[in-house]
Amino acid sequence: MNKLYVGSEVGQLRRVIIHRPERALTHLTPSNCHELLFDDVLAVKRAGEEHDIFANTLREQGVEVLLLHDLLSETLSVPEAREWLLTSQISDFRLGGVLANDVRCFLADLPNQELASILLGGLSYGELPVQSSSMMQGVHERTDFVIEPLPNHLFTRDTSCWIYGGVSINPMAKPARQRETNHLRAIYRWHPSFAGQGFIKYFGDEERNYENSTIEGGDVLVIGRGAVLIGMSERTTPQGVEQLASSLFKRDEVNQIIAMQLPKHRSCMHLDTVMTHMREDTFSVYPEVVRKDVQCWRLTGDESGQVDVKEAGYFVTAIEEALDVGPLNLITTGGDSFESEREQWNDANNVLTVKPGVVIGYERNVYTNEKYDKAGITVLPIPGNELGRGRGGARCMSCPIERDGI
Ligand SMILES: NC(=O)NCCC[C@H](N)C(=O)O
């Protein structure tokens, strides 16, 4: 077993968790998709095929691919994990004691793969083969959910993120994603690839109300040399950043955090939708958002967990200093202003670097990909006409658990 460690954004990628979307997508409808943070319904079979191409592109680059569905099923074979997941995901507070108990009894008899599929993909009242005495069944339609689907598990980047020798298991900002976190808590606690592997859990492993301290991994860039770049976006709050920072400094895993303020818009819901790292001295940026005047702070601290915050001026200079490189090469979204706005929306800036200067990106972003090519960045193109409707690209769809430093 190799070490669980993510030393950068751009070093050789070695192992990654991704999620092939299946059952959850079959539950997406025009009436519920916006609440579930998708802009449209997807062609389910085609989305799976697109995802298979993504997975194979990673494998061809020598990356070991772990599938979230398999990890969850394997975790469910540990009796304590099964018990914990059934109690926490099908809680009495969520469904009322009577229905929760009936649903848990039904689920407890299912094989691991099938149970994982329902936990990830949801269960409607019409699909529940149990007649409960609970009032809940009486007051709900067949298409209402007993267990809400979690289609955004597709974006494994966000729910947990590895930073050097440990992981943050993230309290998510939006209700549609909050149940995802327990799946990752269970996997990291009980799955044999993780249990007892001696990695650090920086933040989010406790079952408690984290209130406003939310973090999502799309905002966290492990830029290397002990530095971390974090976006404070629609999802990640300054309170969340300070909590994570304190734990990172306490464990002595990080020497500085650069925190950037972002507008609270869906088009830039996470930092990685407007900025990704492609080579040690090269970033992709969407210039409409990643502007010179964004507010930026440098956080430092020590093993007491105390965090010191100072204004850091221009974020590019802060990154150059942290990495001891310069000047940084910023490749902006391609095309005229119409084209670049359209391509950013379709995740042209959200590429996954597999090794320095080699990235996976959606093939549809022709203007931006051309600019990458001209700058000497190799784009391994994947189709994303279906997957992209969830508003995430290759970086969003991957959770690296093992990657070299720079
Ligand atoms: N890192 C990312 O930007 N992830 C994409 C998340 C898309 C998802 N539909 C969401 O709204 O959370």
Automatic annotation (TrEMBL):
Active site residues according to the UniProt entry: 396
Any Pfam family hit: ADI
Catalytic activity from the UniProt record: L-arginine + H2O = L-citrulline + NH4(+)
Catalytic EC class: hydrolase
SUPFAM superfamilies: Pentein
Keywords, comma-separated and alphabetical: Arginine metabolism, Cytoplasm, Hydrolase
Pathway(s) annotated for this protein in UniProt: Amino-acid degradation; L-arginine degradation via ADI pathway; carbamoyl phosphate from L-arginine: step 1/2
InterPro entries, sorted: Arg_deiminase
Keyword Transmembrane: no
Location within or outside the cell: Cytoplasm
GO-annotated molecular function: arginine deiminase activity
Entry's EC annotation: 3.5.3.6
Domain of life, per lineage: Bacteria
NCBIfam families the UniProt entry points to: arcA, PRK01388.1
Family indicated by similarity: Belongs to the arginine deiminase family.
PANTHER family recorded: ARGININE DEIMINASE
Protein name per the record: Arginine deiminase
Source organism per UniProt: Photobacterium pectinilyticum
